[in-house]
Structure formats: C-alpha cells, structure tokens
Design goal:
There is one protein chain. This protein is of the alpha/beta class and 431 residues long. 43% of the residues lie in helices and 12% in strands. The protein is built from 15 helices and 10 strands. The strands form 2 sheets. It has an 8-stranded mixed beta sheet with strand order 5-4-1-6-7-9-8-10. Helix 5 packs antiparallel against helix 11 and helix 9 runs parallel beside helix 11. The longest helix has 29 residues. It is globular and about 65 Å long.
C-alpha cells in the first residue's frame, strides 16, 4: 500500500525551511534530487545499496545515476541540478531526511517503478515551474484515455514498428509513460502484438515510439529517468545494465519557437498527445514572438493553449491523430472567435468531450478534450460528450469520480461500438 504523499503545503514548507541558507532553486533541487536518490536505491536501479543517509551519500547516488546512461548525464550539470553548488547545513539535512522518511512515500504502487509520484512531487515543490513554465501534471487515467483516442488508432493504421508519437509539453513525462506502456504491449482486436517479442525488443520499440519536448530542463531530465527506470524495472536490471544506445527521445526546448530542435520536425508524428499550458504569457517580448509565429490563432490576450494547438497540428503527419486536454476558455471569450471560425474548420474534428465538471487534481481551469485528424473534415458529424453537472464533492479517488467515470464509460462504449462495426464490415467484405 502506498504511503500518502505529503500535502502541497508540506512541500512548500520543506522548500521554505531548506531555503534559509541557500536560494530557492537550490532548495527545490535538494528536495527533489534526494527523493530521486531514494527511488534509485529503493528499486535497485543503481549499484548503491544503502539508503542515502547523508548529503554526500545523495551526491554519490546521483553521480552513479548520471553515469548509468547518456540520457542522464544532465544530473551532473549544476545549471540543471543546482544542488551541486549549494551545500546543506546539518539542520537542513535533518529536515530533508525526515521529510522523505526512507523513501516509502515515493512508491507508485505494487510492482510499479514509473515515478509518477516523483513527477507530482516536483510540481508540488517548484512554484517557479508551476507559475512561469505552467507545469501541471496529467493524471495517468486521463493520459490513458487521450492515448486510446489517438495513439491506439494510429498504431492500428501505421503498425507498431513504425508509429511515432510526441508530447510537445511533456513536463515530467506522465503522458510519455502511459504511451510507453501502450506501445510496449500493443493490442489489436484482443490480441497482444508484443506477446511474441522479447522484453528487450518490446521496450526498445516503445522507446523508439515515444518522444517529448519541454521548456523545463529538470522536468525533461526527470522524464528521461522515469522511462529508463521503468525499462530497467521491467527487465529486473540496473539502469547501467541497459543498452547505452537505447533512445530516450526527450529534449529541452521552447516547443513554440525553437525550429532547430530535431524532435520538433513538422509533419513527422502519427499521434500528437498533450495537456498544453493554458497560461497567458506575461513577458511582452515572448508574447509578440509567439503572436508573430502563430498569427492564425494568437489573437488578443491569447492563452498558450491556442498556439500549442496549431503546433500540435503541424507536428502531426497528414492523417495523423491529435488529442489534447486543454482549456475551454476559447469557447467563451473573444480571443477564441478567430480560432473557432477560421482555424479549426479546416481540420477533421472527431471528438469534443466536456471535462469541465470532472475533478482533475491540480487543474483549476475548466477543460475540454479535443480530438482531431489532420485532414479535411469528413462528413458533418462530431462526437460530443456534454457535461450536465460537476462532481457533487471531491472524490476520494479522482479516477473513479462520478463525472470522470461517466465520461470514460461513454467514450469507451462508443469506441467499442465503432470497433464492432469495423469488424463486421471487414468480415462482410471478406465474405
């Protein structure tokens, strides 16, 4: 059974206590890297066998981790992990040691080493990541549905060996991890495609499928770690025993403005899946650059959700599938008029799912799921799931909240009906 994750306020107090002798970025770094070190040792992912019981022991574990795979070398970079240049006082270490209490709080559940709690902890610890980089984790149960609407049909069409997906605002990798699992054991009409593959082959194939980009260098590093930690756990080896040539395709870049990053090549991906940032950029220069780069959608006081939508459409190959959980503010405000009337009608809208009434931890903004295919509209029908009322109270398990359960059940029932129709049509054609 999981130990409850400390509250958001508890994470804030920890950073405040650590920041009495060092600056806030270093305090956040110490707090989170110590959790990563516990996670590594607890799950036997590095040669170290003893829990990190001192600051020096944390550094030794992180040094081992950084050398375990080329994708993790950034753990030695003080610009990304500033704890290297900010020593802790004995009193601060005692506070930090007691907070993580041996590492049990980092367990994701029985037999899982996915690091979901590590991702959630970084969001809770870093106010700067939440405010200036709009870090907001996508719960796994939402990521799973987004992928059912995008990556799964794309894989049916393209095949599991060739399909590619990207999350251009991947954060610490919640959607990427769900995509990794989906790609590792691909199922079509009840048959497991990966069943005849070795574990090594299925993992390598999944790593080749999954791509991510984010503005936050530490979040990118954490996403890479989570993919490699999960791969090592499945094979029951340490990270340094994985093939060093295995790809970990997660890059740090400004997805909206960087045209040099290879992972942001246009028209490349069969599935583009994201929970893009919803904030309005405060910096006037950045806002003008984005407006110039995305003039078709960036009108008025636009939120980043609109240029990210255009970016996602541009990353997708012709006929590709795009699924996003995004702010619904464009439906109600003037800045969304141009987006709705001039931009979206050029694409094949498949689903509009009202999630504004669902309880999604950490999301205070009303949301909607949009699913498109990158082709002209096919017919005049769009499947919609409309909200009637919100959750009567905060559910103990958000994945089983009344509103979300009704949404997921409705979507999956329709998907099952469509698959049955396709199967019957295929059988009729053969006959």
């Amino acid at each position: 059974m999981n130990v409850p994750l400390p509250s958001a306020r508890a994470h804030e107090r920890l950073v405040q206590n650590l920041a009495t002798g060092i600056d806030t970025p270093a305090a956040v770094s110490w707090a989170h890297v110590t959790a990563v070190a516990h996670h590594c040792v607890r799950h036997a992912l590095v040669p170290a066998t003893e829990p990190p019981g001192s600051p020096d022991a944390v550094r030794r574990v992180i040094t081992e981790l950084a050398s375990a795979h080329p994708g993790l070398a950034g753990f030695l970079d003080p610009q990304v992990v500033p704890f290297w240049t900010a020593p802790l006082t004995p009193a601060a270490w005692t506070v930090l040691r007691d907070f993580w209490a041996g590492g049990e709080v980092m367990d994701d559940g029985p037999h899982r080493v996915d690091g979901y709690r590590l991702g959630d902890a970084y969001q809770a610890l870093s106010a700067d990541a939440r405010r200036s980089r709009a870090l907001c984790q996508t719960p796994p149960w939402i990521a799973e549905l987004l992928l059912e609407l995008s990556l799964e049909p794309a894989t049916d069409e393209i095949g599991p060996q060739a399909v590619r997906m990207i999350d251009p605002a991947c954060g610490t990798g919640h959607i990427l991890l769900e995509a990794f699992h989906s790609a590792r054991v691909y199922r079509r009409r009840g048959r497991a495609y990966g069943a005849h593959l070795s574990s090594e082959a299925s993992i390598e194939r999944a790593l080749q499928t999954v791509h991510g980009v984010d503005l936050d260098a530490y979040a990118v590093l954490l996403a890479r770690y989570r993919l490699l930690a999960t791969s090592a756990s499945i094979l029951k080896v340490r990270i340094d025993q994985l093939p060093r040539a295995w790809p970990v395709q997660v890059a740090c870049a400004n997805s909206l403005l960087d045209r040099e990053e290879p992972l942001l090549e246009r028209c490349r991906y069969h599935a583009v899946v994201s929970n893009p940032p919803y904030i309005v950029v405060a910096d006037a220069r950045q806002r003008d650059l984005i407006r110039k780069a995305y003039p078709r959608v960036a009108a008025g006081k636009f939120p980043l959700a609109l240029p990210f939508c255009e970016l996602m459409f541009s990353l997708a190959a012709p006929g590709g599938h795009v699924a996003q959980l995004t702010s619904n503010s464009f439906m109600k405000r003037e800045f969304g008029r141009k987006f709705i009337e001039q931009y979206l009608p050029a694409f094949d809208m498949r689903w509009v799912i009202d999630t504004s009434g669902a309880y999604i931890p950490g999301h205070g903004t009303p949301t909607v799921i949009l699913v498109h295919r990158i082709r002209p509209p096919q017919g005049d029908t769009v499947i919609t799931v409309r909200g009637v009322q919100g959750e009567p109270s905060i559910p103990e398990d958000p994945a089983r909240g009344k509103v979300w359960s009704a949404i997921a059940d409705s979507v999956r029932r329709r998907l099952a009906e469509d698959r049955l129709k396709d199967a019957l049509a295929s059988h009729s054609d053969i006959a």
